[in-house]
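Dear support,

I submitted the protein below through the web form. The confirmation email said the job was done, but the results page showed an empty box. After a refresh the structure appeared. I'm attaching both so you can tell me whether what I see now is the final result or a partial one.
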Amino acid sequence: MSADVISLTEGTNIEDIGMPDKTGEKKKKKVSRDQMAVNVVGSVVVGLFALICVFPFYLIIVASITSEASLIRDGYPLLPKLSELSLQSYALCLKNPVAILKSYGMTISVTGIGTFLSVLMATMTGYVLSRKDFPWKNQFSFFFFFTTLFNGGLVPWYLMCTRYLKFKNSIIGLILPLMFSVWNMIIAKSFMAGIPSEITESAKIDGANDITIFAKLILPLSKPLIATLSLFAALAYWNDWYNCMLFVTNEDMFTLQYYLQRILGSAEAMRIVAEKSGIALPSIPLEGMKMAMTIIATGPIVLLYPFVQRYFVKGLTIGAVKG
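What the results page shows now:
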């Protein structure tokens, strides 16, 4: 075998490294070069795809620190000029830091509590439906799938939440509507169906009940699943502004997303009124504010991804294949 395929040190035994004999040398050499070519092409393709994914976020960062006049005149620049850099958009978004900190605290609280409850609900429901000895699993599964296709409509749902469940200006109104996800439950059910049933049977023989089996055996074996579901739930709670718009009127309970959306809406309304009435108002960097709000709102949740990335692929792919 040539030196470009694999290098041999003096005294190395061919059998120890699994090298083929002379009859298979050409075939091994060809396979190695093919694998190398696949690796190079794959790395280039994945690298280009990563750049395509990161490029819009780079444009958002650049646009958020570029002056409004430059954005309107030249569009989003790849490399902004030093003379056109401006932090006016961030200054306007962070003009009331106390309100920003309150909205951050509200969003973090809702995301933390909601993610814990959402993962608990998905794993508990998925575990029950994955058990072959659960007699009504088909009926419950049909009920959950049916609700993904049909619902009662927005108006009845809103009246029920406000009149009977008292969601108005309550943190429960921000947590409960997103607490159960059928999609997450399906992933949990598929993942747990792949866990050998002998584990639960042996635990039952030792006298463990269902709660003990779930807490001490199933959950420790489901760390990739829990990490994946936690990321899904955290993103859903962090990006939610719709429920806050429906149920919250107290400004101290505004979530970050809804607070920023109100700032942008107010600035846009002021600009429209000024244009129609002919009143001169200071220039409001609406385009830059949109980009700055995106950075402020998405920055913290992006930092969560590296901590669960190693579990993400395993939890999602195993959960997607029926065991």
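Response: this is the final, complete result; the empty box was a page-load delay. The first helix runs from residue 25 to 64.
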